[in-house]
Specification:
Radius of gyration: 21 Å
CATH topology: Four Helix Bundle (Hemerythrin (Met), subunit A)
Strand content: under 5%
Shape: globular
CATH architecture: Up-down Bundle
Largest sheet: none
Low-confidence stretches: 10-15
Helix content: over 70%
Number of helices: 7
CATH superfamily: Cytochrome c oxidase, subunit III, four-helix bundle
Number of domains: 1
């Protein structure tokens, strides 16, 4: 005689992918189209000119500040990602802690080298951005390895604060770059595209810093845990997005223009 097996009803109100995270994916799809249109505009202008950038353009040099800023921002993606993992696992990163510490060790070494080179060239602000990022990278390594005060929930909090600081240093470096550039928005087509694309990205980073700070404040109030972390997960996706966009901006607007190939 066949025996029917009873299965608990599936509660459709709680899908595997939380609505908040799904909303962020949908939002990022619109952001991809937005930045995609900016890149399409830029490449259209490149293709419609016999020489690019236009003659006489003093484009922002790829070295040192944009390169230092790139390391700073990408390393913030590492601390943000593993900060979320620490929250998900109650501060236990396991092998992830070793991987994160290794990645930040590479970032630390690059920042120190770049800061020393910038200082040797008399570029004080560029050097300070590198040194500031290096200090935060060192602190993040301690958090990854669970050293000092970084135990349990403090691993997440430490990495999250490091993410905010690195993002802030990036914004400060970007602001200094804009203030000291030899071009402005109305110089020519390249300058207009440059400030539009990097400016919109900087605005997205600033918005991300606001969200990261809000998550930090709520975390300090005990509103997130291993079981409830939709907000941190959504903003982590967003932060990875601004990291990826910056990689393309760096390659297209800096490296391809004043780098070894572009130069």
């Amino acid at each position: 005689m066949a025996v029917a097996t009873a299965h608990p009803p599936v509660d459709s109100r709680y899908p595997r992918l939380h609505a908040g995270v799904m909303g962020m994916y949908i939002f990022l799809c619109s952001e991809i189209m937005f930045f995609g249109s900016l890149f399409a505009m830029y490449f259209y202008m490149v293709g419609s000119h016999t020489g690019w950038p236009p003659a006489g353009t003093q484009a922002v040099e790829v070295w040192p500040l944009p390169t230092i800023n790139t390391v700073v921002l990408l390393s913030s993606g590492v601390t943000c990602h593993f900060g979320l993992e620490a929250l998900r696992h109650d501060g236990r990163l396991g092998r992830g802690g070793i991987v994160g510490a290794g990645l930040m060790g590479v970032a630390l070494a690059l920042m120190v080298i770049f800061a020393v080179l910038a200082d040797a060239g008399g570029l004080l602000i560029d050097s300070l951005i590198g040194w500031a990022g290096a200090v935060v990278a060192f602190i993040s390594i301690l958090a990854f390895l669970g050293r000092g005060p970084f135990q349990g929930r403090r691993v997440f909090l430490g990495l999250w604060i490091c993410t905010i600081l690195l993002g802030l240093f990036f914004e400060l470096g970007q602001a200094y770059e804009f203030a000291t550039a030899h071009i402005n928005f109305t110089t020519n087509q390249f300058a207009s595209a440059f400030f539009t694309m990097t400016g919109f990205h900087g605005g997205h980073v600033a918005g991300g810093l606001v969200l990261l700070t809000l998550i930090l404040v709520r975390s300090l109030r005990g509103q997130f845990s291993a079981a409830h972390h939709v907000g941190p997960a959504a903003i982590t996706l967003y932060w990875h997005f601004v990291d990826v966009v910056w990689i393309f901006l760096y390659l297209v607007l800096y490296f391809a223009v004043t780098g070894p190939v572009g130069g």
